[in-house]
Amino acid sequence: MKNILKNKIAVLVVILSTLLTGCSDYLSDLPDARTLIDSPEKVSQLITSAYPESSYMLMAMTMSDNVDDSGINNRTEDLELDLYNWEDSSLDTRDAPTHYWNACYKAISQANQALASIEELGGDMNAQKGEALLARAYAHFMLVNFWGKHYSPTTASSDMGIPYVFEPETVLVQKYSRNTVKEVYDFIETDLLEGISLVQNEYDSPKFHFTKDAAKAFAVRFYLYKGDWDKVISYSESGLVNSVEKIRNLPEYASLSFNEAKARYPSANETANLLVVSTSSLHARRYRRPRFGLTVKIFDQLFASGAGNPFGKSWIYNWYVSSDVYYTPKFEEYFKVTNASAGIGQPNAAIVLFDADELLLNRAEAYAMKNEYAKSLIDINVFLSKQTNNYNAATDIVTDVMVKDLYPVVADEFTPFYALDDVQRSYVKMIAELKRRSSYHEGMRWFDVRRFGMEVTHVLDDGTEKVLAKEDARKLLQIPNSAIQFGVAANPR
Known about the structure:
Blueprint: H1 17-20, H2 25-28, H3 40-47, H4 57-63, E1 68-69, H5 78-84, H6 97-121, H7 126-147, H8 181-198, H9 212-226, H10 229-236, H11 243-246, H12 250-253, H13 258-264, E2 273-280, H14 283-286, E3 292-295, H15 296-302, E4 320-322, E5 325-327, E6 333-339, E7 344-355, H16 356-369, H17 373-385, H18 400-406, H19 422-438, H20 444-451, E8 456-459, E9 465-468, H21 481-485
Antiparallel strand pairs: 1-3, 2-7, 3-5, 4-5, 6-7, 8-9
């Protein structure tokens, strides 16, 4: 074993402190005052902080076409208004872009600290190394998909991505430059594949860590965004054996109370959930009564009277309404006390990063892109069996003709970097609409807006229209001011 005293690595590091937030108290501490990582157990503990402790869901949801202005002015916040108008926000409050950027780079630094400790300690820590590599890859993947252009093989070599960081912070002032999107994706893929080969499932609470299945679900999303349909299908197989038993059983949710449902949705005991993390977030409060949310207009388009359900039946989601804004229970806030005597703490919420429902629909999309429509239909019908009220397996069957009739081709609506024929367009649109509904409140629609090159129109309460064009530069979040000040190039405006 190497002498780890030569490499004093800290727990609870403020990551990329000069890049993200300026000088920190951490970097002013003497190295000897920091906690040493001198055992496999401490490495494992360190990796628990290698997941972003911030939620992207509010910002992604508010920028998408899933929301409308409710006009609840007493709840208006600058952050939500900035996001709805696709304006650069300098706020660093919970759920803001800068807050998420910082949390991702903090997670990356924790992963890098763990990897450095593993190298220093030696011995068999392949499982920990696999999880740290996957965590590093995931945080960079989310960063590049908010602050860089969506991957396209024709432009990725020149498109600006984000800084990919491999080493723990060792100096007070560290300059960073942006890797290209291609470089970032290549680095992610390297970390991802090595991580999958090493990671195991032996955790006290497996749903809060990258397991084999969670890692493969990440690979499925990664390759879907790259357009590698064969790998999407390959990595989805193990997670979807007996898929009807793996996805979320919403008929069971129908009998739950509001409190029971919001506790179950992100629960580690929910079979469908593959990876859950705890975040410092106010989203569990905001989503129930936001200014920009599921108004009557959007509710009528997406859910009312079974809108979009191919069988003409109602969706099985439980809806509640507050001041004309609808919501379904998915988040539960818990207060993490940091100072009991002073009554000080932080609002936290568990969020689901990967689940079997997304995995199933991602595979359905890949099958459609390979013209394997019969297999795509099987996945679509399995998914709808748990989404439809009074579902009848004998009569409620989506057919190829139904997909084409319900989702006819709309010229220039979906324009990904790859070609779509008319049949593929119908299937991809249907699958995207199913995702849009099942992941409501979770922000996943924003990534479809980006990867399909969709135009979005937002209307303010006073009637003012705001349009986000298909190739609008504002689809890339602006690099935080603190990072720009330390040499990271801003996104064009």
